[in-house]
Amino acid sequence: MTLPSPQNISIEKVRYHDLNELEKIFTGAFGEEVDAAIIRQRIHRIRQFYFVLLPLSSVSLWLKNLFSIYICRVEGKVAGFMQVSFFNRGQLHLDYIAINKHYRGQGLGTLILRKLIDGAARNNYDIILEVRSDNPAYYLYKRLGFISQAQILHYDKDIERNVPARFTTKHRLGGFRKRNNNDWRQIYELYLKSLPLKLHQIARREIREYNPSLFTKSLEWFKNYMMGNVKQQYVLEKHGKIVGTLELQSYLKAHSHIMNVMLDHEHEYLRERVYLQALYLLRTYKRGTISTTIYRDGVEKQQALEKLGFIETEAYYLMFRPAHLQNKVVESDRCFNDHTNKSLSQNRNMHNYDCRLKS
Protein backbone atom coordinates (compact mmCIF):
# COMPACT_ATOMS: atom_id res chain seq x y z
CA MET A 1 0.00 0.00 0.00
CA THR A 2 1.17 3.53 -0.74
CA LEU A 3 1.41 6.42 1.64
CA PRO A 4 -1.52 8.86 1.46
CA SER A 5 -0.93 12.29 -0.02
CA PRO A 6 1.06 14.52 2.37
CA GLN A 7 -1.66 17.16 2.12
CA ASN A 8 -4.05 14.69 3.77
CA ILE A 9 -1.77 13.92 6.76
CA SER A 10 -1.63 16.03 9.91
CA ILE A 11 -0.21 15.64 13.41
CA GLU A 12 -1.57 17.61 16.34
CA LYS A 13 -2.03 17.38 20.07
CA VAL A 14 -4.75 15.08 21.34
CA ARG A 15 -8.15 16.64 21.97
CA TYR A 16 -10.97 15.54 24.20
CA HIS A 17 -13.02 13.93 21.42
CA ASP A 18 -9.96 11.88 20.32
CA LEU A 19 -9.68 9.94 23.58
CA ASN A 20 -12.12 7.13 22.70
CA GLU A 21 -10.26 6.39 19.48
CA LEU A 22 -6.94 6.68 21.31
CA GLU A 23 -8.03 4.00 23.79
CA LYS A 24 -8.92 1.60 20.95
CA ILE A 25 -5.60 2.06 19.18
CA PHE A 26 -3.60 1.89 22.42
CA THR A 27 -5.32 -1.29 23.62
CA GLY A 28 -4.99 -2.93 20.21
CA ALA A 29 -1.31 -2.09 19.86
CA PHE A 30 -0.11 -2.72 23.41
CA GLY A 31 -2.70 -5.05 24.93
CA GLU A 32 -0.19 -7.90 25.06
CA GLU A 33 2.55 -5.76 26.57
CA VAL A 34 0.70 -3.49 28.99
CA ASP A 35 -2.21 -4.46 31.21
CA ALA A 36 -5.28 -3.29 29.28
CA ALA A 37 -6.99 -2.35 32.55
CA ILE A 38 -4.20 0.14 33.30
CA ILE A 39 -4.53 1.62 29.81
CA ARG A 40 -8.27 2.09 30.15
CA GLN A 41 -7.97 3.48 33.65
CA ARG A 42 -5.36 6.03 32.60
CA ILE A 43 -7.31 7.26 29.59
CA HIS A 44 -10.54 7.29 31.60
CA ARG A 45 -8.92 9.63 34.13
CA ILE A 46 -7.61 11.91 31.38
CA ARG A 47 -11.13 12.05 29.94
CA GLN A 48 -12.75 12.55 33.35
CA PHE A 49 -10.53 15.47 34.41
CA TYR A 50 -9.49 16.77 31.00
CA PHE A 51 -10.89 20.28 31.37
CA VAL A 52 -9.63 20.60 34.96
CA LEU A 53 -6.10 19.32 34.44
CA LEU A 54 -5.30 20.71 30.99
CA PRO A 55 -5.01 24.35 32.18
CA LEU A 56 -2.60 23.18 34.92
CA SER A 57 -0.30 21.51 32.39
CA SER A 58 1.52 24.80 31.95
CA VAL A 59 2.79 24.68 35.55
CA SER A 60 3.16 20.95 36.22
CA LEU A 61 5.73 18.72 34.56
CA TRP A 62 3.68 15.59 35.24
CA LEU A 63 0.61 17.12 33.62
CA LYS A 64 2.61 18.42 30.66
CA ASN A 65 3.84 14.91 30.00
CA LEU A 66 0.38 13.47 30.56
CA PHE A 67 -0.98 15.63 27.74
CA SER A 68 2.04 15.24 25.41
CA ILE A 69 0.08 12.91 23.15
CA TYR A 70 0.02 13.59 19.41
CA ILE A 71 -2.63 12.26 17.07
CA CYS A 72 -1.87 11.49 13.44
CA ARG A 73 -4.82 11.97 11.10
CA VAL A 74 -5.18 10.80 7.52
CA GLU A 75 -7.98 12.56 5.68
CA GLY A 76 -9.39 13.63 9.04
CA LYS A 77 -9.46 10.12 10.54
CA VAL A 78 -7.27 9.06 13.47
CA ALA A 79 -4.56 6.78 12.05
CA GLY A 80 -2.10 6.66 14.92
CA PHE A 81 -0.54 8.47 17.84
CA MET A 82 2.65 8.97 19.80
CA GLN A 83 3.31 10.04 23.37
CA VAL A 84 6.50 11.68 24.62
CA SER A 85 7.81 12.75 28.00
CA PHE A 86 10.84 14.74 29.06
CA PHE A 87 13.71 13.68 31.32
CA ASN A 88 15.27 17.13 31.41
CA ARG A 89 15.86 20.25 29.32
CA GLY A 90 17.87 18.36 26.71
CA GLN A 91 16.33 14.89 26.46
CA LEU A 92 12.94 13.56 25.52
CA HIS A 93 11.64 10.02 25.84
CA LEU A 94 9.41 8.41 23.24
CA ASP A 95 6.91 6.57 25.43
CA TYR A 96 4.66 5.05 22.79
CA ILE A 97 3.99 5.08 19.09
CA ALA A 98 1.13 3.09 17.55
CA ILE A 99 -0.52 2.95 14.15
CA ASN A 100 -4.11 1.84 13.53
CA LYS A 101 -4.05 -1.59 11.86
CA HIS A 102 -5.88 -0.20 8.81
CA TYR A 103 -2.96 2.17 8.11
CA ARG A 104 -0.01 -0.11 8.78
CA GLY A 105 2.48 -0.99 6.06
CA GLN A 106 2.20 2.43 4.41
CA GLY A 107 5.23 4.11 5.97
CA LEU A 108 3.13 6.24 8.29
CA GLY A 109 5.08 5.21 11.41
CA THR A 110 8.33 6.23 9.73
CA LEU A 111 6.93 9.64 8.85
CA ILE A 112 5.78 10.21 12.43
CA LEU A 113 9.21 9.27 13.73
CA ARG A 114 10.93 11.58 11.28
CA LYS A 115 8.63 14.39 12.34
CA LEU A 116 9.60 13.73 15.97
CA ILE A 117 13.30 13.80 15.00
CA ASP A 118 12.70 17.06 13.15
CA GLY A 119 11.04 18.68 16.16
CA ALA A 120 13.74 17.39 18.52
CA ALA A 121 16.50 18.70 16.23
CA ARG A 122 14.97 22.17 16.20
CA ASN A 123 15.14 22.25 20.00
CA ASN A 124 18.45 20.38 20.47
CA TYR A 125 16.89 17.35 22.21
CA ASP A 126 18.39 13.88 22.44
CA ILE A 127 15.79 11.13 21.98
CA ILE A 128 15.58 8.00 24.14
CA LEU A 129 13.31 5.02 23.58
CA GLU A 130 12.94 1.34 24.41
CA VAL A 131 11.89 -1.29 21.89
CA ARG A 132 11.21 -4.98 22.39
CA SER A 133 14.12 -7.15 21.29
CA ASP A 134 11.81 -9.14 18.97
CA ASN A 135 10.19 -6.07 17.40
CA PRO A 136 11.20 -5.53 13.72
CA ALA A 137 10.95 -1.79 14.40
CA TYR A 138 14.36 -2.11 16.07
CA TYR A 139 15.97 -2.07 12.61
CA LEU A 140 13.96 0.99 11.58
CA TYR A 141 15.24 2.88 14.61
CA LYS A 142 18.80 1.88 13.73
CA ARG A 143 18.35 3.23 10.21
CA LEU A 144 17.10 6.48 11.68
CA GLY A 145 20.27 6.87 13.74
CA PHE A 146 19.28 5.32 17.09
CA ILE A 147 22.05 3.38 18.83
CA SER A 148 21.44 0.50 21.25
CA GLN A 149 23.04 1.32 24.60
CA ALA A 150 21.77 -1.36 26.99
CA GLN A 151 19.28 -4.18 27.37
CA ILE A 152 16.44 -4.01 29.86
CA LEU A 153 14.81 -7.16 31.21
CA HIS A 154 11.19 -7.23 32.40
CA TYR A 155 10.21 -9.70 35.12
CA ASP A 156 6.77 -10.68 36.44
CA LYS A 157 5.56 -12.72 39.37
CA ASP A 158 2.06 -13.75 40.38
CA ILE A 159 1.34 -12.91 44.00
CA GLU A 160 1.23 -16.09 46.07
CA ARG A 161 -0.21 -16.29 49.56
CA ASN A 162 2.61 -18.48 50.85
CA VAL A 163 5.51 -16.18 49.80
CA PRO A 164 5.46 -13.94 52.92
CA ALA A 165 5.76 -17.04 55.10
CA ARG A 166 9.40 -17.23 53.97
CA PHE A 167 10.05 -13.85 55.54
CA THR A 168 11.52 -14.45 59.01
CA THR A 169 13.49 -12.35 61.46
CA LYS A 170 16.75 -13.38 59.78
CA HIS A 171 15.56 -11.71 56.58
CA ARG A 172 14.86 -8.36 58.22
CA LEU A 173 17.16 -5.62 56.99
CA GLY A 174 18.78 -3.38 59.53
CA GLY A 175 18.51 0.25 58.48
CA PHE A 176 15.43 -0.36 56.30
CA ARG A 177 12.96 2.47 56.88
CA LYS A 178 10.42 4.71 55.20
CA ARG A 179 11.78 7.48 53.06
CA ASN A 180 11.55 11.00 54.47
CA ASN A 181 11.77 14.45 52.90
CA ASN A 182 15.42 14.93 53.84
CA ASP A 183 16.66 11.88 51.93
CA TRP A 184 16.41 13.32 48.43
CA ARG A 185 20.02 14.44 47.96
CA GLN A 186 21.48 11.10 49.05
CA ILE A 187 18.99 9.28 46.81
CA TYR A 188 20.05 11.36 43.82
CA GLU A 189 23.70 10.58 44.55
CA LEU A 190 22.79 6.89 44.84
CA TYR A 191 21.06 7.08 41.45
CA LEU A 192 24.23 8.43 39.85
CA LYS A 193 26.38 5.72 41.49
CA SER A 194 24.05 2.81 40.68
CA LEU A 195 23.53 3.70 37.02
CA PRO A 196 25.67 1.62 34.62
CA LEU A 197 28.67 3.71 33.57
CA LYS A 198 27.74 3.55 29.87
CA LEU A 199 24.40 5.26 30.60
CA HIS A 200 25.67 8.23 32.57
CA GLN A 201 25.49 10.57 29.57
CA ILE A 202 22.19 9.15 28.37
CA ALA A 203 19.74 8.90 31.27
CA ARG A 204 20.42 12.28 32.81
CA ARG A 205 17.74 12.74 35.42
CA GLU A 206 17.77 16.18 37.03
CA ILE A 207 18.29 16.69 40.74
CA ARG A 208 15.00 18.58 41.13
CA GLU A 209 13.15 15.39 40.21
CA TYR A 210 14.29 14.02 43.56
CA ASN A 211 13.22 17.13 45.47
CA PRO A 212 9.82 18.07 44.00
CA SER A 213 7.95 21.17 45.09
CA LEU A 214 4.99 21.02 47.44
CA PHE A 215 2.72 21.75 44.47
CA THR A 216 4.13 18.78 42.54
CA LYS A 217 3.77 16.52 45.57
CA SER A 218 0.17 17.61 46.00
CA LEU A 219 -0.59 16.89 42.35
CA GLU A 220 0.95 13.43 42.62
CA TRP A 221 -1.07 12.70 45.74
CA PHE A 222 -4.22 13.84 43.94
CA LYS A 223 -3.37 11.65 40.92
CA ASN A 224 -2.81 8.56 43.07
CA TYR A 225 -5.94 9.24 45.10
CA MET A 226 -8.18 9.63 42.06
CA MET A 227 -6.73 6.57 40.34
CA GLY A 228 -6.83 4.43 43.48
CA ASN A 229 -3.05 3.94 43.48
CA VAL A 230 -0.83 3.32 46.51
CA LYS A 231 2.81 4.38 46.52
CA GLN A 232 5.31 3.17 49.12
CA GLN A 233 8.90 4.46 49.34
CA TYR A 234 11.70 3.09 51.54
CA VAL A 235 15.43 3.51 51.93
CA LEU A 236 18.16 1.19 53.16
CA GLU A 237 20.67 2.94 55.39
CA LYS A 238 24.06 1.66 56.51
CA HIS A 239 26.29 3.62 58.90
CA GLY A 240 24.21 6.75 58.33
CA LYS A 241 24.44 6.54 54.54
CA ILE A 242 21.65 5.55 52.13
CA VAL A 243 22.84 2.58 50.07
CA GLY A 244 19.55 1.42 48.58
CA THR A 245 15.93 2.32 47.86
CA LEU A 246 12.69 0.41 47.32
CA GLU A 247 9.62 1.89 45.64
CA LEU A 248 6.32 0.05 45.28
CA GLN A 249 3.55 1.46 43.07
CA SER A 250 0.28 -0.47 43.41
CA TYR A 251 -2.52 -0.07 40.86
CA LEU A 252 -5.30 -1.55 42.93
CA LYS A 253 -8.05 -1.68 40.33
CA ALA A 254 -5.77 -3.45 37.88
CA HIS A 255 -4.28 -5.71 40.59
CA SER A 256 -0.83 -4.70 39.38
CA HIS A 257 2.25 -3.73 41.39
CA ILE A 258 5.47 -2.14 40.09
CA MET A 259 8.65 -2.72 42.12
CA ASN A 260 11.78 -0.58 41.67
CA VAL A 261 14.98 -1.33 43.56
CA MET A 262 18.18 0.70 43.52
CA LEU A 263 21.41 -0.38 45.27
CA ASP A 264 24.97 0.84 45.19
CA HIS A 265 27.46 -1.66 43.84
CA GLU A 266 29.01 -2.44 47.23
CA HIS A 267 25.64 -3.61 48.58
CA GLU A 268 24.38 -5.61 45.60
CA TYR A 269 24.62 -8.71 47.79
CA LEU A 270 21.53 -7.44 49.65
CA ARG A 271 19.32 -7.37 46.55
CA GLU A 272 17.53 -10.66 47.24
CA ARG A 273 16.70 -9.55 50.78
CA VAL A 274 15.32 -6.23 49.49
CA TYR A 275 13.12 -8.13 47.01
CA LEU A 276 11.96 -10.38 49.83
CA GLN A 277 11.14 -7.29 51.90
CA ALA A 278 9.03 -6.00 49.01
CA LEU A 279 7.10 -9.28 48.83
CA TYR A 280 6.46 -9.03 52.54
CA LEU A 281 5.16 -5.47 52.21
CA LEU A 282 2.75 -6.66 49.52
CA ARG A 283 1.53 -9.61 51.60
CA THR A 284 -1.96 -8.17 52.10
CA TYR A 285 -2.74 -8.41 48.39
CA LYS A 286 -4.10 -11.85 47.58
CA ARG A 287 -3.98 -11.65 43.81
CA GLY A 288 -2.32 -9.74 41.05
CA THR A 289 1.09 -9.37 39.43
CA ILE A 290 4.35 -7.86 40.64
CA SER A 291 6.53 -6.43 37.88
CA THR A 292 10.03 -5.01 37.81
CA THR A 293 12.77 -4.17 35.31
CA ILE A 294 16.55 -4.47 35.53
CA TYR A 295 19.49 -3.73 33.28
CA ARG A 296 21.29 -6.77 31.86
CA ASP A 297 24.58 -5.78 33.46
CA GLY A 298 25.26 -8.82 35.63
CA VAL A 299 23.70 -12.19 36.39
CA GLU A 300 23.32 -11.47 40.10
CA LYS A 301 20.17 -9.39 39.62
CA GLN A 302 18.58 -12.03 37.41
CA GLN A 303 19.48 -14.83 39.84
CA ALA A 304 18.00 -12.94 42.79
CA LEU A 305 14.67 -12.46 40.98
CA GLU A 306 14.48 -16.00 39.62
CA LYS A 307 15.25 -17.48 43.02
CA LEU A 308 12.11 -15.78 44.34
CA GLY A 309 9.92 -17.03 41.49
CA PHE A 310 10.05 -14.07 39.11
CA ILE A 311 9.94 -14.98 35.42
CA GLU A 312 11.60 -13.01 32.64
CA THR A 313 8.79 -12.07 30.26
CA GLU A 314 10.28 -9.48 27.91
CA ALA A 315 13.57 -7.92 26.87
CA TYR A 316 13.99 -4.40 25.52
CA TYR A 317 16.78 -2.43 23.89
CA LEU A 318 17.43 1.01 25.30
CA MET A 319 18.18 3.18 22.27
CA PHE A 320 19.61 6.67 22.10
CA ARG A 321 19.83 9.29 19.38
CA PRO A 322 22.03 12.28 20.23
CA ALA A 323 20.86 15.72 19.22
CA HIS A 324 23.89 16.45 17.02
CA LEU A 325 22.86 13.65 14.62
CA GLN A 326 19.33 14.81 14.10
CA ASN A 327 19.85 17.46 11.46
CA LYS A 328 21.19 14.80 9.07
CA VAL A 329 17.76 13.30 8.46
CA VAL A 330 15.24 16.04 8.97
CA GLU A 331 15.43 17.33 5.42
CA SER A 332 13.71 14.20 4.10
CA ASP A 333 10.40 15.03 5.69
CA ARG A 334 8.89 18.38 4.80
CA CYS A 335 5.52 16.85 3.95
CA PHE A 336 3.69 17.95 7.11
CA ASN A 337 1.91 21.25 7.51
CA ASP A 338 3.12 24.22 9.53
CA HIS A 339 0.62 23.47 12.25
CA THR A 340 2.41 20.20 12.95
CA ASN A 341 5.78 21.93 13.30
CA LYS A 342 4.21 24.45 15.63
CA SER A 343 2.53 21.76 17.76
CA LEU A 344 5.78 19.91 18.38
CA SER A 345 7.74 23.09 19.02
CA GLN A 346 5.30 24.45 21.60
CA ASN A 347 6.70 21.98 24.12
CA ARG A 348 10.20 23.46 24.10
CA ASN A 349 10.02 24.21 27.81
CA MET A 350 8.72 20.80 28.89
CA HIS A 351 11.04 18.69 31.04
CA ASN A 352 10.41 15.03 32.90
CA TYR A 353 10.06 5.50 32.51
CA ASP A 354 7.96 2.84 31.14
CA CYS A 355 8.20 2.71 27.40
CA ARG A 356 7.06 0.06 24.97
CA LEU A 357 7.25 0.71 21.28
CA LYS A 358 5.36 -0.95 18.49
CA SER A 359 4.99 0.07 14.88
Automatic annotation (TrEMBL):
The chain crosses the membrane at residues 49-71. Gene3D superfamilies: 3.40.630.30. GO terms for molecular function: acyltransferase activity, transferring groups other than amino-acyl groups. Residues 9-170 form the N-acetyltransferase domain. Keywords: Acyltransferase, Membrane, Transferase, Transmembrane, Transmembrane helix. This is N-acetyltransferase domain-containing protein. InterPro entries: Acyl_CoA_acyltransferase (IPR016181), GNAT_dom (IPR000182).
